[in-house]
Amino acid sequence: MPTPDRPGAGVSLADGVYRAVHAAILRGDYRPNQRLVETDIAEELGASRTPVREALQRLGSEGLATKSRHGWLVREFTINEIREIYDIRAALEGYAARLAAQRGDEEQFKQLATLIAEGRRLATRGKTSRATVAEVGDRFHRAVISMAGNERLSGLIASNQTYYFSYQLAARYSDDQLATAVQEHERLGEAIRRRDADKAELLARQHILDTLALIETLIDR
Q1: Is 4 part of a structural domain of the chain?
Q2: N or C end of the chain: smaller count of CB under 10 Å?
């Protein structure tokens, strides 16, 4: 079940509830079309209904939840919506990879290499949690975006990334598909480290589009 951030460090109770429910949707704890019941969430999180109501409204404005006659539901996206989301991701994250290759420093390169190594280690373990794999993959992508050094670009990417597809997809990865995803991260990381901006952008875009193609395959089954 979701756990709210503890108050403090600039995190309000409303923000904590929002982050907890947001994370639960991304992890798949709350499934598409599942009802998000204020009283149940408030009880799970030990919060009043007011911050829960605010969190659900915020999730609704971001497109992760939708309002029905019976209350809030986790939104289920159509395949056309998913294609549009990934088209935008390919463009934005491709450009972020280009900037990362141009602007990244040695410390950031080391951090990226650490994430790649962690992903490789997880991929070679027989019973690795796919949610853990997805979380490491997300950290890798966030690291590349951070290296770009452009807050406006980062904000645009974040507003288009708050969806649960990566976790759903990772849960259905075969071992071979998981290994391929890790290899794509390795090639992208190497292009960034070598400051090959053209190749980094191309690889990042292709990685996102390959992920879309896999989603389409899984949805068609």
Answers
A1: no
A2: C
CB-based contact 185:120 (threshold 8 Å): no
Give residue 158's pLDDT band: very low, low, confident or very high (50, 70, 90).
Answer: confident
Structure tokens at 11: 């995190």
CATH number, domain with residue 121:
1.20.120.530
Among candidates 57, 68, 67, 71, which has minimal Cα distance to 22? 57
38 and 106 share a domain? no
Q: 194 lies in which domain range? A: 79-220
Report how many domains make up the chain: 2
Q: What is the H or E stretch that residue 10 is in?
A: none
Residue 119's Cα: distance from chain center in Å? 15
* Two tokens, residue 138: 């997300």
User: Given CA atoms 103, 198, 90, 25 in this order, what sign does their dihedral have?
Assistant: negative
Average pLDDT over residues 154-160: 88
Mind listing the pLDDT tens digit for each residue in 58-104? 999 988 899 988 899 998 888 898 899 899 999 999 999 999 999 99
- Do 84 and 153 lie in one domain? The reply is yes
- What residue type is assigned to position 150 of the chain? N
Instruction: State how far the Cα of 169 lies from the Cα of 191, in Å rounded to an integer.
Output: 25
